[in-house]
Amino acid sequence: MAGGKNATLSDGLHDTVSTRLRRANQRVTANRKAIVDALSAASRPMTIPEILESPGGRGLAQSSVYRNLVVLEEAGLVHRIVTDGEFARYELAEDLTEHHHHLICANCGLVEDVPASTGLEQSVHTAASQIARSTGFHTQRHRVDLVGLCARCA
Predict the structure, then answer these.
(1) What CA–CA distance (Å, rounded) separates 41 from 19?
(2) Is the pTM of this model over 0.85?
(3) 45, 55, 109, 118: which could form a disulfide with 89 (CB 3.0–4.6 Å)?
């Protein structure tokens, strides 16, 4: 769900990447395309070392990946997930993939995507409606990160 469905950029995703980068006064470069390709092919959010080890990331400099991830995040193409682990993890922005939530291991920092179940979504919607009535705050979107121990660390 971090991308996972397309091993390479689809035409629609490529167009979106180009458009958002142009809006941010940036351009599509080979390195940015390689990073988006790697995230698109991933089944879960990736660390910078994982991006560097991926087929599309081989040959990229770590400093270049870091700088380009900042640009891609500022352009609304990439979402950074900060965990208690040593490295942040990155995935394509949710509007480029599909709505999902995360399981975050408090021990090793592993992040797994989980589908947004109907029951959970209804509960979040109900809670957001109650919050709006009592506070006037109107939710635009939400993220649910469940923090605990992965199967390996449990």
Answers:
(1) 21
(2) no
(3) 45
Nearest by Cα to 40 from 21, 22, 18, 56: 56
Helix (H), strand (E) at residue 16: helix 11-23
**Distance separating alpha carbons of residues 71 and 45, to the nearest angstrom:** 17
Rg (CA), the chain: 17
Q: Which residues pair with residue 131 across a beta bridge? A: none
pLDDT tens digit at each of 154 positions of the chain: 444 444 345 778 889 999 999 999 999 999 999 999 999 999 999 999 999 999 888 889 999 999 999 999 999 999 999 887 678 999 999 989 889 999 999 988 889 999 989 999 999 999 999 999 999 999 998 989 999 999 999 9
Q: Which long-range contacts (CB under 8 A, 24 or more apart) does 15-22 make?
A: 16/77, 16/96, 17/77, 20/75, 20/76, 20/77, 21/71, 21/72, 21/75, 21/77
